[in-house]
Amino acid sequence: xxxxxxxxxxxxxxxxxxxxxxxxxxxxxxxxxxxxxxxxxxxxxxxxxxxxxxxxxxxxxxxxxxxxxxxxxxxxxxxxxxxxxxxxxxxxxxxxxxxxxxxxxxxxxxxxxxxxxxxxxxxxxxxxxxxxxxxxxxxxxxxxxxxxxxxxxxxxxxxxxxxxxxxxxxxxxxxxxxxxxxxxxxxxxxxxxxxxxxxxxxxxxxxxxxxxxxxxxxxxxxxxxxxxxxxxxxxxxxxxxxxxxxxxxxxxxxxxxxxxxxxxxxxxxxxxxxxxxxx
Amino acid sequence: xxxxxxxxxxxxxxxxxxxxxxxxxxxxxxxxxxxxxxxxxxxxxxxxxxxxxxxxxxxxxxxxxxxxxxxxxxxxxxxxxxxxxxxxxxxxxxxxxxxxxxxxxxxxxxxxxxxxxxxxxxxxxxxxxxxxxxxxxxxxxxxxxxxxxxxxxxxxxxxxxxxxxxxxxxxxxxxxxxxxxxxxxxxxxxxxxxxxxxxxxxxxxxxxxxxxxxxxxxxxxxxxxxxxxxxxxxxxxxxxxxxxxxxxxxxxxxxxxxxxxxxxxxxxxxxxxxxxxxxxxxxxxxxxxxxxxxxxxxxxxx
Lengths: 279, 302
What we know:
Mean pLDDT of chain A: 86
CATH superfamily of the largest domain in chain B: MetI-like
Number of strands of chain B: 2
Shape of chain A: elongated
Strand order of the largest sheet of chain B: 1-2
CATH topology of the largest domain in chain A: D-Maltodextrin-Binding Protein, domain 2
Helix content of chain A: 25-40%
Number of strands of chain A: 11
Distance between the termini of chain B: 46 Å
Radius of gyration of chain A: 24 Å
Oligomer: heterodimer
Number of helices of chain A: 10
Order of helices and strands of chain A: HEHEHEHEEEHEHEHEEHEHH
Mean pLDDT of chain B: 90
CATH class of the largest domain in chain B: Mainly Alpha
Helix content of chain B: over 70%
Strand content of chain A: 15-25%
């Protein structure tokens, strides 16, 4: 007796759901709000700011869709995408060949760029990656060693845990070997101290660089949006939201997510968190 | 009869309200203490008490993280002690000047100036320290370490800057508490000393200051409390790298450690920051208990 009731309910539910699905499909184009369900993202901790801002404004537009993001690290994110436990795998680096072979498709949604800055009176305008590494690891301590004036180098950076510091150290492969003279807890703090300290060097997100400081070219490439988009500037990294198979093969929910990212609203979110929109 | 009953209700309500307010304060202290202990102790289990409190390496985000906060504790202690060492003599002598030496007219200018010093927000001290003191310190640093290959130049953001800023910040506390206790010394003591042939300065240092000792000590302890708990101003002038507290090293205090890293910390890193908060809390509590004890002794003396 009990079993049959359960079965009846289940049957009823299933048919209801089918009706709803059919109805949903037919109405899909005229009303976005009809989309409902859950999108799951997992991966890079560096992408937290972007993901939080994006999912917040996305859910405002689609109140019936819940977006959950886990910050497990780039590799773990792509792994869980490949294993099918998440819809989107976040990686703050280009996908590896092995990951692509396993079916992950690289969708670059934003680019993170870091500018190296010095005070305005510095005569150096170009550094190589090696020189930058030797400055930050403390083997070069005076600008004269790099062809500049006889001025001590004051090495400024961000506090442990900062995304900018994480990206900078990761891209230069100097994780946890940097010798900072000062650790400041905000982008504005780095800008202000670099501007006011003779011989100072620091790093900040590209979008906040202003004319109180001097932006240094790396390996002859100036830190500009154009150079970053063209892939010439070293201190930048792509923010990838990988999908299993092309976006066109994804569920309507995931498609809506990427449509939103590529819309003007989505682009506003990307620039509002200090990132560059890929072309 | 009715009127009296009404009075009683009003009296009783007032009593309840006062009791609730009093309980509120006690509850706040108790819950903060409980919270700090609950949040601050788990890191001990994860990292190890000795490695945490006496470790000298702070690399919370490394592949193999190190959570040693010894230099941070040491910086707080050294910074506070040095600023008190500078601030207290200056403050005490200012208080002597105000109460014993200066005429009424001069005191009328100096006294409000000192009190205004107390009203300035700490972020302003930090800003001035950053804009005026740090560049000066950097010039000094360049002279002291001219040609040095091993010294890492900090751009003037160092322990010395922090000490100077803190010393100025504790001045008003020391001055006002000391001045009021100097004023409270009975005039008969001074008169007796002068009558015995002591000079004015002999009287000040041998009679008046010793008589006001307990009040002055209260000022000192209040100053220690202020210096120990200050975060904003130090954060702006001390550099913020974790180093041994030497005068020209960039340093991080217990307070600034919390301010600068709480934002992005997670996992054990976050737990350790709570432990840092707990250590700071223990220090502050110790200072305040000392203060309570001193006040009690003073009260029983009188």
